Amino acid sequence: MAAILEVKNLTTYYKTRMNERICSVDNVSFSLEDGKSLGIAGESGCGKSTLAMSVMGYYFPPLYYDSGTIIIDGKDITSLKPDVIRQTVLGTDIAYIPQAAMNALNPTRKIMRFIEDVLRAHGSALTKKEMRDLAEDRFGILNLPPKVLDQYAVELSGGMKQRTVIAISTILNPKVLIADEPSSALDVSSQKIVIKLLHDLMEKGFVRAMLFITHELPLLFNVTDDIMVMYAGEIVERGAAREMVFDPLMPYSKGLMNSIIVPEEGTRGHVLQAIPGAPPNLKIRPEGCRFSERCQYLKICEGTLNDKKAGPGRIYRCRLGEAKLRELYRKQEAEAKKFPLISHTYVDEAIASVETKGEERP
Ligand SMILES: Nc1ncnc2c1ncn2[C@@H]1O[C@H](COP(=O)(O)OP(=O)(O)O)[C@@H](O)[C@H]1O
Ligand SMILES: [Mg+2]
Questions:
Q1: Between 20 and 30 A from 134 (CA), which of 11, 143, 157, 292?
Q2: Cα gap 120→126, rounded to integer Å
Q3: How far apart are CA 294 and CA 31, in angstroms?
């Protein structure tokens, strides 16, 4: 199948006032197939949002392009000028819903005005009435009543605001949609609504492929086809969503899975364990394995650091081989079950309390 987004060896950096480089996206390569969704997971500060901004090819200070290529649906956008990117790529080839976008809607303008602005900025020849019809249609698909178009952002609930932002960002039918933590500010049931609607947009063909960013790896289970884990500016593991959630290989992915409770079937009863420490400073651009200082297997670490294959579409970056990692995890889980720090009952109770939260009231 053809890739709709192809990123090769992309490196981008922030330049600080002290003229230092913070290399937040470091030699990143991945591709996203037409019709597929790809999740990007990793703790805060790992470079997920910077990667999202970088793949749009639209750079402005303090973010700068260093090297690599970005191809969207066969078109190389890497060397296009910012003006050209703004006019011919953003919104149509690729659209980005920034983190916290729902709180960034200008409070003094009615929602319909945002839609008109986006359409006009792209030279739309539609009349006001046609724009209105288009907006009503799209809002309907996102379960938003037409009256929202005549309202101000402050009049909308969190979930409705989020859906409004999605409607505005996708009005030009972008080939690739990047949703950056679209649900982290919402309660669990609103999160599920947002995720379902993003899928509906893809199924109806308004969006052809999607990147979905979250700091919670397990949330991506049954949300995206594939998952990539990002750590300190690099991709450290990628595979099919199910395998990534239930059978992570790279110790950092394993740590992410173990550190979060998500109310999904199959994640119940896992042992909760935080990853000690924090991601490294990217000014230094660490040599070798960037996770090593936090890795509990550092003492037994051996072999060559490279991207290792583990079945079709599965790749992880670690010195240890697949068999060795699996053996370590089996032992550790057996031990943890003997002396649980947090009992499984506790985890199940926490999940149950989240699940019983009410549905969102519009
Ligand atoms: N405007 C900025 N100037 C300098 N450094 C930045 C800026 N924005 C982000 N960074 C740095 O880039 C790294 C990645 O940040 P970000 O992409 O926001 O991570 P994530 O989205 O995974 O939380 C962080 O270490 C952060 O300190
Ligand atoms: Mg972010």
A1: 157
A2: 9
A3: 29
* DSSP 8-state symbol, 283: T
| Closest-approaching ligand to the CA atom of 41 | 1
First-to-last C-alpha distance (Å) of the chain: 40
Ligand closest to 23 (CA) is: 1
By C-alpha distance, which of 199, 283, 358 is closest to 212?
199
Q: Which CATH number fits domain 3-229: 3.40.50.300, 3.40.640.10, 3.40.190.10, 3.40.50.360?
A: 3.40.50.300
Which of ligand 1's atoms lies nearest the C-alpha of 181?
21
CB 234 within 8 A of CB 200: no
* Amino acid in position 208: R
The CA 325 to ligand 1 mean position distance, Å, reads 31
Instruction: Tell me the C-alpha distance between 312 and 362, whole Å.
Output: 43
Q: What is the pTM of this model?
A: 0.90
What is the amino acid identity at position 282? L
Q: Residues 210, 169: contact at Cβ < 8 Å?
A: no
* Per-position pLDDT tens, the chain of length 362: 689 999 999 999 999 999 999 999 999 999 999 999 999 999 999 999 999 999 999 999 999 999 999 999 999 999 899 999 999 999 999 999 998 888 889 999 999 999 999 999 998 999 999 999 999 999 999 999 999 999 999 999 988 999 999 999 999 999 999 999 987 777 777 777 888 899 999 999 999 999 999 888 877 877 899 999 999 999 999 999 999 988 999 999 999 988 876 555 554 455 567 888 999 999 988 889 999 999 999 999 999 999 999 999 999 999 999 999 999 999 988 887 776 555 454 455 555 555 544 444 33
Residue 280 phi, psi dihedral angles, 5° rounding: -70, 165
Decide: 209 and 5 in contact? Cβ < 8 Å: yes
- N residues, the chain: 362
Q: Whose CA is nearest to atom 4 of ligand 1?
A: 14
Ligand 2: centre distance to CA 107 (Å): 23
Residue ranges per domain, the chain?
3-229
From CA 137, how far away is CA 151, in angstroms rounded?
Answer: 17
Task: Dump the DSSP string for 167-182.
Answer: HHHTTT--SEEEEEST
